[in-house]
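RETRY 2/3 - previous attempt timed out on the joint model. Re-submitting the same 964-residue input unchanged.
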Amino acid sequence: MSGTAKRVILLVLCILLIIVLQMKIDVYRPKYKPGETVSLGYISREVLATALMGLREVAASLLWMKIEDYFHSGEHEKIPPLIRIITWLDPHFVEAYSSGAWQLAWNSEDWRLIPSAEAFLEEGIKNNPDKYELYADMGWLYYDKIKDYDKAIEWYKRASALKSPPQVRRMLAHSYERAGKIDEAIKIWKKLIEEGKKEVERNPKNFEAIFNRDVAIHNYNMCIIRKIDRAALAKRPKPYYLSFKVYRVSPRILQIRAKTNLPELSRIRVSLVDEDIAERKKKSLGWQLMNETEYIDVWPQVRKGEMKTDIDLTDALKYPLKGERFILTISLLPQTQPVVVQDVLGWLGEGMAGGDVVVIHSSPPKKKVEKSAILTLNDITGQQTALIKEVK
Amino acid sequence: MEAVKTEGLTKHFYDPLRRQAVVAVDNLDLVVERGEIFGFLGPNGAGKTTTIKMLLGLIFPTSGQAWVLGNPIGDKKTREKISYMPENPYFYDFMTGEDLLLFYGSLFGLKGKALKDKVDELLHLVGLSEHRKKEVRGYSRGMLQRIGIAQALLNDPELLILDEPTSGLDPIAHKEVRELFIRLKENGKTILLCSHQLSDVEMVCDRVGIMNKGKLVKLGRLEELLKVGEMEITVEGLEPQKVEQIEKVASRVYKKDNNYLLYAEGEEKAQEIIDFVRDNGGRVLSVVPLRRSLEELFVEIVKEAG
Amino acid sequence: MSVIWSIARGTFKESMQKKIMWVFFGIALLIIGLSFIFSYFSPSEELTLIKSIGLGIIYLFGVLIALIITAGLIPTEIERRTIHTVLSKPIERWQFVLGKFLGVALVLFMNMMLMAIALLIVVMSKGSARAEGFFKALVTNSRILEATLLLFFYLLILCAFAILFSIFSTTNISITLSAFVFIIGSLSDYVADIIKLSHNPLTSLVLKVLHLIVPNFGNASIYNSVIHGYIPAGEARYVLMAIAYSLAYCLVLMLLSTWIFAGKEV
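RETRY 2/3 succeeded.
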């Protein structure tokens, strides 16, 4: 056998040996790698090395794959810290900011994380001031979660000033509608119809163009119709009543039963806070305070004149209940209501007057229905089932 | 068996910048006999170093064949019996002189006491015993040459291939090296000597090969190559008229003090002149066959090539 | 073979002369020694930090020394023409390459083990390490030496690459190429995890093939277990397999190197 042939055989044998050994080694490798912990666990040496070598974006992308893993496996609480690291590595990773905020404000179902989501988005915006996405996300946060439509308008305005798709301006228009500024909304719808028609002329077969135009037309029409309808409501406002009873089912579990003539499917807001929250908010702010003073913020619906909801405060970590007295508030704000309810009540409560209806002096003026009661610590933590409060 | 034999040895280098092949060695047919000192000459770039590198297996011929000590080039066994001294000493300068020789010696397969003794002997031979513990980077030019010669003698080689062994040496060292070469030849060794020191070559070489632009342009025994064929006859006491008569036979005539120098081409004409001078009352002081110097031959050859 | 050994010794001496290596070595020892600053932390944290940083230093400087010393060996010989005198001796070309490789292996080994011993001394000097008794602590912490030894074998692969590249290119190019190989090879450990996440079978296959062929420098990182003091079952077997892998890889690279070098004109 020639020297070359011998060498080739030796070479091939070695390569096979390498492959076989590596496969065997791979069986043992996981034992030497740090486990799945929420801290530096997944920052393996390699990821850190790529990060340090200036390939931060690569490291961020590799870690992003882990996020998808967590979504699939349902370990959602592990997502925010990892997202924090990803955005630290790559501050231009807009999708990470967006996802992280969504995880905090919506998916966690813990409304006390909303300020964190806000702060996170703000940081994302600071790092990516020319991209519309995070401004729009902020707008949506205010629109859907916090339900502060004036703020939503602000953010959607900023988003639409940048290069952005039509849905951003559609959301801006909707924000105007909910804030009661109908004429502004109609202006935007008109503009969108114009643009939509032009676009369809240019690309008659383009589905998206047709869609944008038609949606704008539909919304415009609805605005006009509602403007007329709801203006009519203002001529004949009705009184609305709300009364409720608070039961203690067992220690730290309450049940609220309300009776009301508010329209079917109205969303009543139920909130439980420390009595002195107003004072304490003045002195300090931040979400630490929120954790200790605001306990419940749920939005149960009215069905057949009744609303019933259970409040479970048994998780002492989540609900420390440090104070002595608490304010339980049941309220309804027309702005936040679904369209069918607004058709009866008006955008800002134009169709409401008298009864338990209260006027808020803002511009434009808004109406709401609100009732509250004081609960003591004993009320909440007491042993037997009992009716604690009745508010008529 | 010849010490070195080449047949049609050719080397082309490809120049990527100019996209052409440079012919460094062109169809070389060369023989170096055993036991001779062969002078390998030529201007820089003539192809001498390339040829030597091919003989040593450092580079590979484009075509043609060659044998060293009867074995094809590149054979490891051959290299046990030959040695090489490079032009411009290229040695590990962080080693001491002694370490360097011990290192090279070990590559020859020498070891232990045999190696140590040989190193001692060679250091003494080249006069570097005092500097053996000094690092090579501190050696003067002359010392480097000497250590180079020493390492070429480690394996008691049959054939020594030496590239500029005497450059940078003082006259006494030159003489010592020449004497070393002659001693080696007397012991039956063969030396392939590349040198620009034409005086040394003239003094020690048996045969000479001159390369130019890759081709071997002159090859032969030194006396043959340098023979001019003219005889110089110094004459005294000849009357001017007689000199005129003999001018036809002589190729040149010079007057020097009271004597005449007559140049005759060939032995016959020389004999004629000598007879004439004697017959005409003159005295022949000396008859010297003229030689060119190697330098003149060299220059002439290079000029010829243009 | 005494020829290979001679060349190795020569290479060793040559490398020891290189100032840059001593600079690296000095800095590494200095940093390891400076770990006394960490007395600010609690004892167990301090120990973890010393071990982490110490091993990281050995890793970093090991890589630097391997790359920089090896890449220049053969090109320098060719540039300075010292190679002519050597190759004209009765030696095989492969003996030359192997001799160089062995020489640099000795240099690397010496450097790394000295650094590891220094680290071991620093660790043992901390009272917290000796809490369970001197000899027990020595045995536990000698895993520092084990980890360094394993790393040494893998850096040999890097040296072999450097030699391979330096045969047909310059010093700087071979440093760059070797560094590149090192990065890819280090990521390969991570690729093994990514394969599990990938949903595309074609991607998985390509990645799997790459993972098996590329030199896996990650095999050497048993640092986590050394720092946190746990020994996974079958460690002896793992280490032996890992070393066998590195030797097999070096053999492949040496075969290629000697092959190419045999045809190289000097």
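Chain C has a mean pLDDT of 86. Closing ticket.
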